[in-house]
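Lecture notes, continued. The same structure-token format from the folding unit now serves as the input rather than the output. Read the line below as a description of shape only.
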């Protein structure tokens, strides 16, 4: 058995775009009514409730990279010996379709322990605020989280290729030999 009909009205004082802050959800009678004979047995009380809008999280992630030993890799493509000049990052979590250029100014700081010619291994990329700042009008609407990355260097492939030979029938095989290709930098069979 239903004792009520209709729906209450609900509204909030949240501004368009809902900036971070504390607001109120107000509930009113709307079309909500008590049906007879229950309208004599009850009164309706409308109680507002809080609405909190918390900052969105912007995640600034260092761009990880994997490349083969001896390849330049985009972390130091010109071999300048300063990999930090070339490290990249991505930004996720922008609200309301806001473009990055209107929300963030400057650049984060990125460093790596990878040398200009890194050997095989995994090298950390550390990312931090640097001179990156939020637009003052939007600063309270975001918190920033930084996520480090890595530079992974995998082994280069050396090809050991047997030399081709020919011999006459019923003669002994010649001394076989081989050639090794794939060395990088100044590495050679003698040094490596």
């Amino acid at each position: 058995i239903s004792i009520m009909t209709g729906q209450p009205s609900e509204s909030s004082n949240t501004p368009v775009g809902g900036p971070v802050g504390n607001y109120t959800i107000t509930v009113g009678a709307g079309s909500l009514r008590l049906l007879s004979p229950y309208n004599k047995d009850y009164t309706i009380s409308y109680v507002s409730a809080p609405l909190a809008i918390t900052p969105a999280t912007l995640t600034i992630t260092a761009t990880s990279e994997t490349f083969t030993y001896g390849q330049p890799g985009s972390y130091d493509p010109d071999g300048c010996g300063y990999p930090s000049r070339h490290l990249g990052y991505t930004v996720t979590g922008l609200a309301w379709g806001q473009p990055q250029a209107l929300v963030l100014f400057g650049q984060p700081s990125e460093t790596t322990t990878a040398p200009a010619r890194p050997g095989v291994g995994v090298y950390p990329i550390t990312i931090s605020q640097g001179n990156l700042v939020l637009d003052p009008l939007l600063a309270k609407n975001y918190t920033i989280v930084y996520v480090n990355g890595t530079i992974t260097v995998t082994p280069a492939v050396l090809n050991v290729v047997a030399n081709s030979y020919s011999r006459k029938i019923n003669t002994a095989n010649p001394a076989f030999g081989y050639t090794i290709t794939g060395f990088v930098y100044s590495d050679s069979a003698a040094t490596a």
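Point for the exam: The chain has a mean pLDDT of 89.
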